[in-house]
Design a protein that fits this description.
Elements lengths: L1 H10 L7 H8 L3 H7 L3 H25 L3 H14 L1 H9 L3 H18 L9 H21 L6 H13 L6
């Protein structure tokens, strides 16, 4: 079903895709789709959630080892390798789902680590970092001649992560 939605998203905007379009593309029955997902939004959120979990599984080891630039490079290379998918996720209807899931996972990590700065709450640090990362990735995906992944990784590390690192 995921492949069907992604294929349709290459041809038309998310808002123009109907459940009938999805079932026809996937070759399944209408009722099967509704039993599994309920709505096309739920399907898109499931795709976004899985992709984000895959992405963050690449970056967690670097973050835990204090190699935030290495983690950012892994993140950006992954996004670059799946640029078409991330263009759909960040530019299409999944951006709110990506942000919610990214915040949820990042908050779980923040709950394990102390507040990075005495003046900064962990929650505010996480929200700021996640918002900045998503905005940088969205900007990068939209570029006709994008910067290399390593350049974007350094921007993310400097703008999103360095300000919330412990002093």
């Amino acid at each position: 079903m995921s492949e069907a939605l992604l294929a349709l998203l290459e041809r038309k905007p998310f808002e123009a895709i109907s459940a009938r379009d999805l079932t026809a593309e996937a070759g399944i029955g209408y009722s099967t789709f509704f039993r599994q997902y309920g709505t096309k939004e739920a399907l898109l959120e499931a795709i976004a959630s899985q992709e984000l979990h895959d992405l963050l599984s690449l970056t967690r080891p670097g973050m835990a080892a204090e190699d935030s630039l290495g983690a950012c490079i892994a993140l950006c290379r992954h996004v670059d390798e799946s640029r078409r998918l991330w263009s759909i996720l960040l530019g299409g209807g999944a951006a709110p789902a990506i942000r919610r899931e990214f915040l949820k996972i990042s908050q779980e990590l923040a709950d394990v680590h102390p507040a990075p700065q005495a003046w900064l709450t962990a929650d505010l640090g996480v929200r700021t970092a996640v918002s900045t990362i998503i905005e940088i990735l969205s900007w990068w995906i939209e570029q006709d001649q994008p910067q290399p992944a390593e350049w974007v990784a350094e921007a993310i590390e400097r703008l999103a992560l360095r300000p919330i690192k412990p002093a």
